[in-house]
Amino acid sequence: MVLNILSGDIQIADRMVRIPTDAELYAMDKIALDKHKKLIDLFYKTIDSQGVELGGKAKIDYTAFRAFCTATAGLEGKTSPGGSAGNTLVTLSRLLNAGKTRQINVDMFGVVGAGDPYSERIRADLEREKINLIPPESEYTRLPQAATSFVFQHPPGPDGEKGKRTIVTYPGNAKDILKPEMVTPELINKNDVVRLPSGCVKMKDIAELAPAVAPGSSAMPFL
After folding, report:
1. What band does 177 get if pLDDT is binned at 50, 70 and 90?
2. Full-model pTM
3. Distance, CA of 134 to CA of 53 (rounded, Å)
């Protein structure tokens, strides 16, 4: 028996960026130094314009997102897909599909972008874990853009205290693409478990719509 799950989440990639110490900057060659300085200048310009302190969170638009993509390209730093529901479903898929017999099928209601390395990383991870992204991109009304957080790790303080983390996030445009009516009766009826958080779309009535859209369905909703 295969368990069919329908869930949803804002698909996001986390890009870790370590801010070098003054000593590390001093030891760099000119090319590396110029690249780090451009990124640091962009970072401080962004948080200062929003009144965000070190250790806080800033939100950026698409133009700034492309600027951060360019500024971080080629620099060391781990990139990993995020989203709480997505992480949970990836874990379930790995655990239950580890054997020869497939035990779980997952449909993910969400948006993955295109044309940037972070969106491609999310897409590749979902494909590798055999998680089906819905709705199909043919139903998108605009070019999809996945959310990305640039997580800046600052150097330790002078007294050895742990360095702060400042997060700069581009929210993507999933909320402009995903609509409640995309959750059809057919989609719900073919799944055994339905979990659709209202954060996936602008319309707050998605939570009420999901269990009501398919009267008589045996699906178990978790909202």
Report:
1. confident
2. 0.77
3. 38
DSSP 8-state symbol, 99: S
Give the amino acid at 132.
N
Residues of the domain holding 184: 3-221
Instruction: Report pLDDT for 195.
Output: 76
Q: Tell me which H or E stretch contains 108.
A: strand 104-109
What separation, in Å, do the N-terminal and C-terminal C-alpha atoms of the chain show?
24
Q: Is 120 exposed, middle or buried (0-12, 13-18, 19+ CB in 10 A)?
A: middle
Q: Which residues contact 200 (CB under 8 A, 6 or more apart)?
A: 8, 9, 10, 109, 110, 174, 175, 178, 206
The mean pLDDT value for 45-64 works out to: 96
**Distinct helix (H) and strand (E) counts, the chain:** 8, 10
- Longest CA span, the chain: 68
Cβ–Cβ under 8 Å, residues 19 and 40: yes
With a CB cutoff of 8 Å and minimum separation 6, the contacts of 90 are 81, 125, 129, 131
Strand blocks (E) in 19-86: 57-59, 79-82
Assess contact for 110 and 85: CB atoms under 8 A.
no
Q: Please tell me the total count of domains within the chain.
A: 1
Are 109 and 178 in contact, with CB atoms under 8 Å apart?
A: yes
